Amino acid sequence: MKLYNTLTKRLDPFAPQHGRTVGIYVCGPTVYDHLHIGNVRPVLVFSALRRYFERFKGWRVLYVQNVTDIDDRLIKRSIETSQTVATIAETYTRAYFDLLEALGVDRPTASPLATDYVEEMVQFIAGLVEKGHAYERDGDVYFRVASVADYGALSGRRLADQEAGSRVRVSESKEDPLDFTLWKAARPGEPEWPSPWGPGRPGWHTECVVMSRAHLGEHLDIHAGGNDLMFPHHENEIAQATASSDAPFFRFWLHNGMLHFGGEEMHKSLGNFRYAYQILEAYDAETVEYFYLSRHYRKPLDFSEDGLRAAQAAVARVRRLIDDIEAELRQSDGEMGPAGQAFSQSLARFRERFVEALDDDFNTVDGVAVLQDLVSETNRFRAEAVGIDRLALRDAVELLRELGWPLGLFQPAGASSSSIEAGLLDLLVGLRRELRARKAFDLSDRVRDQLAELGVELKDTPQGTLWSRLAP
Ligand SMILES: [Zn+2]
């Protein structure tokens, strides 16, 4: 498998370096607000990559995503709302986990909170000071950028360019305008932790270095996040990590593209700003996954209602096909003829094409196209197959589910709210059967009609009543 590595600026072959375990660290949310539709993109993309590794490569994935629960933005929000920083952090950390659940995204294997690692961060910063890579000024500690070679290698920014650009800024007490904060002295009333430089709080760039090492150990395989984090955040992580020890830091750096609205950036002042939970009020999680993953993760994602509606229709078509095939074939069994067997065998090439696409820098655009081709081929066979050969359609459904798995698509009703939905529908279908047995046809018809209004179709077959979702 190949992945585009921002560090080397090329497609590099990827495999875990230690056994079958892959460590992935994705920069997590700063919990001062809900995630918006831009910062939910890395969440969706990199959890899909995780599921692909687990299911298609057989690798064990340690997936770490931190929670930044101390930061200037939290303090600002605290002042604005007169709530404590801890209350704000708690509120939005919970909202973040609720969002993961609503999206059907697995929780990370670890979600370390920055405030649980302050002691480790203080030790880490002290080590940098000792080695001459950092210095203290009035209770703040800065990283001495000039002390490391290769600064700017990840983002491709040359030191000279940045100096020219930043000369206009007033550089407080820093030696160099490029030097960044590792430790920030607390002002009265701000949350603080003890340190050799006086009470204060750690900087964001230090947090990710310390927590990724703490949770991944030697499995520093992939560090991921949005393009916007490449500089200065990731550049500063690398500078600290390489300055602190000779031990290697992450080998692969993956970055997803930003969200746009017809070429414009998302911004509150442009009126196009939306929170991630708001799209889930209008669309289901599967539609959202389909929409985000049918674009290449490295390219900008043009966000639009039309795009979401198209995704919704595409998902509904596949869902309908799966429901119909399962309803038709639920109870039949037998030996297929040559036509059925030929169709079943022909399915292997879809799996091959899918793996080929995702192995090529996780090209989910082509992966989704393979799924659509599989749907067309299944429809073609379904239209012409007769008798027991139709059993081969079950293999197509099974494959749709297998290939849909890493992308969060086409799974049977599972553990989440969808299983409650399925349970309630089964309950209603059972009650309607009872009503019909008692000849209360007015009530049984009402159940059917009202379910139809909700987008659920009931079909009475010799095997019993089956329900399926209607395409919108
Ligand atoms: Zn980070």
Descriptive report:
It is a single chain. Helix content is about 50%, strand content about 15%. The chain has about 475 residues and is α/β, with parallel strands linked by helices. The chain has a four-stranded parallel beta sheet, with helices on both faces. The protein has a four-stranded antiparallel beta sheet with strand order 5-6-7-8. It has a three-stranded mixed beta sheet with strand order 12-11-13, with no helix packed on it. Strand 14 (about 455-460) and strand 15 form a beta hairpin. About 35% of the residues are buried. The chain binds zinc ion (ZN). Zinc ion binds near residues 27 and 208. Zinc ion binds near residues 27, 208 and 233.
Proportion of residues in extended strands: 5-15%
CATH class of the largest domain: Alpha Beta
CATH homologous superfamily of the largest domain - what is it?
Answer: HUPs
Termini, distance in Å?
Answer: 38 Å
Ligand catalogue:
zinc ion
Short description:
The chain has 472 residues and is an alpha/beta fold.
Keywords:
single chain, 472 residues, alpha/beta, Isoleucyl-tRNA Synthetase, Domain 1, four-stranded parallel sheet, 16 helices, 15 strands, binds zinc ion
Indicate the topology:
Elements: E1 2-5, E2 10-13, E3 21-26, H1 41-57, E4 60-65, H2 72-81, H3 85-103, H4 118-130, E5 134-137, E6 140-143, H5 159-166, E7 181-185, E8 200-202, H6 204-216, E9 222-226, H7 230-244, E10 252-256, E11 259-261, E12 264-265, H8 276-282, H9 285-293, E13 301-302, H10 305-329, H11 338-346, H12 348-359, H13 364-384, H14 392-404, H15 417-437, H16 441-453, E14 456-461, E15 464-469
Parallel strand pairs: 3-4, 3-9, 9-10, 11-13
Antiparallel strand pairs: 1-2, 5-6, 6-7, 7-8, 11-12, 14-15
Helix pairs in contact: 6-7, 9-10, 11-14, 12-13, 13-14, 15-16
